[in-house]
Amino acid sequence: MLTEQCVIVDIDGTLAEFDAEAVREWVLGPEKQWQPFFAHMAEALPSVAISRLVGLLSAQQQKIVICSGRPASFQRHTQEWLERHCIPFDALYLRPDGEDTLPDEVVKKTLLEQIKADGYAPWLVIDDRQAVVDFWRAEGLTCLQCAPGDF
């Protein structure tokens, strides 16, 4: 199988502006409440710097792989947000349904395995959450941390 170099990009707090305190009660506790979170995030603006960087990378023929802790059941919602804001992407990987209790870094480990199995070879990651940034770096990937993510 041929592998394609790619850049992995997170959504919430990375591509989408995100106030951890504003959404804490919905998604940062043990039980996830996705409906109010997505109602809030539907209005989120894209990060100007990160969306611009993703556009530049895409224009240079880099494959853009979106990898998020959002549940797979919200794939259409997520794709619509990306398309509405003209953010280019080649693939979208989301948290498997039913894995709400797993920490994001555990979910992203599973997603990374799937990304690689699908023939992508990541060389760069853009993410915000410290625990996830630490995970990517432990996997030997260069990770640009775009915002403080100690939550």
UniProtKB/TrEMBL annotation:
Domain of life (superkingdom): Bacteria
InterPro entries found in the cross-reference section: HAD-like_sf, HAD_PNKP, HAD_sf
UniProt keyword Metal-binding present: yes
One Pfam family from the record: HAD_PNKP
Single GO MF annotation: metal ion binding
Keywords assigned: Kinase, Metal-binding, Transferase
Keyword Kinase: yes
Gene3D superfamilies linked: HAD superfamily/HAD-like
Domain Polynucleotide kinase PNKP phosphatase residue range list: 5-151
Transmembrane region(s): none
Name of the protein: Putative polynucleotide kinase
